[in-house]
């Protein structure tokens, strides 16, 4: 019901070459990106477009933030205290409204034919282009005017598609806030209002790369308290600006540090028409319009008074907005309806139920038994980085055999099991790999996902089978989460997962 006829026809014609793992459009998460187009938003978009085969992208919308706003074109001055400027300004670090159309999607178009070889579900460049809109960009937090961007979000929130609409805020939440306010202005005085407000609150989920203006606190939280908002700002410790207070490039766990080094990024990410748009330290690039984007130039970045001391050439710089879409990626772990379950985006906990705000947990217990800060996002760096690099290769080759493609793993017998305390639960997984790579399977307890507070022995003698012993002291109703993880041995090894939750009888 949501397909246009041309889309159906296209899908039908290509069916014979669709690899088995393509995700149908109605199963995909429906999402809108709003972005202030700082250089790390562009870097995040470079990653994002490589995942558009598994997401239903409904909008890519320019918005303002406390760091970037366009001004009204009439030299009107604007000022808020405690910002990067200390006198009123007519615009601030604005990078324009053409980068997505003229630079990012042009690069996507150059590699699109190759991407299709690896998954026919990639949207056409024109399809993505048709989703690009200008939202509320004039000043920080501006939400007085309906814009093309806010109108698009409003119409998606009111349409008949029952899927959740994941609204990503990579800049301010103001364009999203404007859409909500416009709905309220139109319907608040009608008989259907309470019903409508409840259904919009159920449909929308805001995935926020922090709160980069005041519109969440000032408007969304008080007026839409039942609308779920997830704040991923602590995931910047994994994916945000790599400044590290003069300690140098220490990003990532010691054995996964490689993925943040210049050697790895230059060789595996900053390649080809799309990858060259990615940003790293001292890579010679600069975003027109943003006078504080000095990261590409050593002389400017090392000057006294800059907030982020330069690291080595091509070291990881920042891609702080992938934090908002990592929870939507199809790894087998993701359950976007339940932020209390972990995944590449991390695991969250409820901060307050009214307004409904979720935030990432601070620590999780690592394999060595220590509580480790940011482990909830750092634990996935290797898998997520290899996945990104493998997709970058897809864009460079028209031969399916020259790319690596993820294995599939599925627990046999479903995602839920009931067992008594003291009982041994037999588990088995079905594993396949589209490239016929050798796949290594491992099973482990995701301790914090379960409500049983202790460790559970998971033994796996044979590669695809395992058994988990429900401890004798487990109480009825407690849960134990077991993950199966499958990693292939292709170039850039790819990992997929499945989860079973054992509930104690
Ligand atoms: C104004 O801000 C700049 C940095 O943006 C800073 O260097 C300067 O000292 C500030 N001036 C005052 C008067 O605070
Ligand atoms: C870096 O910036 C300095 C100061 O503006 C400039 O003189 C130099 O040419 C720049 N270097 C590069 C490689 O762009
Ligand atoms: C909720 O979030 C606020 C703002 O980030 C924070 O100060 C507070 O500690 C959090 N509360 C809980 C219970 O996590
Ligand atoms: C435990 O493992 C984590 C993650 O690899 C590491 O950061 C931490 O230093 C380790 N702790 C100890 C005590 O070895």
UniProtKB/TrEMBL annotation:
**Is the Signal keyword given for this protein?**
yes
List each copy of the Cellulose-binding Sde182 C-terminal domain by range. Answer: 424-504
Q: Which residues form the signal peptide?
A: 1-24
Q: Does the keyword Ubl conjugation apply?
A: no
Task: Pinpoint the Cellulose-binding Sde182 nucleoside hydrolase-like domain residues.
Answer: 30-347
Q: Which Pfam families match?
A: Sde0182_C, Sde182_NH-like
Q: What UniProt keywords are attached to this protein's entry?
A: Signal
What are the protein's GO molecular function terms? hydrolase activity, hydrolyzing N-glycosyl compounds
Q: Could you name the domain of life of the organism this protein comes from? A: Eukaryota
Q: What is this protein called?
A: DUF1593-domain-containing protein
């Amino acid at each position: 019901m949501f397909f246009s006829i041309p889309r159906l026809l296209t899908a039908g014609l290509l069916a014979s070459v669709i690899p088995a793992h393509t995700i149908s459009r109605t199963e995909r998460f429906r999402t809108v990106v709003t972005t202030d187009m700082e250089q790390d938003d562009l870097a995040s978009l470079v990653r994002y477009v490589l995942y558009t085969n598994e997401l239903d992208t409904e909008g890519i919308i320019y918005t303002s933030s406390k760091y970037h706003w366009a001004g009204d074109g009439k030299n009107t001055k604007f000022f808020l205290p405690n910002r990067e400027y200390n006198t009123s300004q007519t615009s601030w670090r604005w990078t324009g409204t053409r980068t997505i159309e003229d630079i990012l999607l042009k690069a996507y178009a150059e590699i699109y034919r190759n991407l299709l070889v690896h998954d026919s579900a990639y949207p056409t460049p024109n399809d993505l282009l048709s989703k690009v809109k200008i939202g509320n960009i004039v000043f920080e937090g501006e939400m007085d005017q309906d814009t093309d961007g806010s109108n698009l979000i409003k119409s998606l929130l009111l349409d008949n598609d029952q899927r959740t609409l994941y609204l990503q805020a990579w800049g301010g939440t103001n364009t999203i806030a404007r859409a909500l306010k416009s709905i309220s202005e139109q319907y608040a005085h009608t008989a259907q209002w309470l019903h409508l407000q409840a259904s919009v609150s159920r449909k929308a989920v805001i995935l926020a790369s922090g709160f980069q203006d005041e519109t969440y606190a000032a408007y969304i939280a008080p007026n839409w308290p039942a609308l779920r908002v997830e704040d991923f700002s602590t995931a910047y410790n994994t994916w945000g600006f790599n400044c590290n207070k003069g300690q140098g490039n220490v990003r990532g766990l010691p054995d996964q540090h490689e993925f943040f080094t210049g050697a790895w990024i230059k060789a595996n990410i900053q390649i080809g028409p799309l990858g060259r748009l990615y940003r790293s330290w001292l890579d010679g690039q600069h975003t027109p319009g943003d006078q504080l984007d000095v990261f590409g130039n050593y002389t400017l970045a090392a000057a006294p008074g800059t907030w982020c001391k330069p690291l080595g050439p091509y070291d990881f710089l920042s891609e702080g907005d992938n934090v908002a879409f990592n929870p939507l990626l199809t790894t087998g772990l993701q359950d976007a309806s339940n932020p209390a379950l972990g995944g590449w985006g991390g695991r969250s906990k409820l901060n307050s139920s009214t307004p409904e705000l979720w935030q990432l947990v601070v620590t999780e217990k690592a394999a060595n038994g220590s509580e480790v800060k940011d482990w909830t996002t750092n634990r996935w760096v290797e898998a997520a980085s290899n996945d990104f690099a493998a997709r970058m290769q897809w864009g460079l080759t028209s031969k399916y055999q020259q790319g690596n493609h993820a294995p599939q793993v599925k627990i046999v017998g479903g995602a839920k099991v009931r067992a008594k305390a003291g009982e041994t639960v037999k588990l088995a997984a079905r594993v396949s790999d589209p490239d016929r790579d050798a796949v290594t399977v491992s099973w482990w307890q995701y301790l914090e996902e379960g409500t049983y507070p202790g460790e559970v022995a998971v033994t796996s003698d044979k590669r695809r089978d395992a058994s988990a012993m429900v401890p004798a002291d487990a109480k009825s109703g407690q849960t134990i989460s077991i993950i199966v993880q499958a990693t292939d041995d292709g170039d850039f090894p790819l990992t997929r997962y499945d989860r079973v939750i054992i509930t104690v009888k």
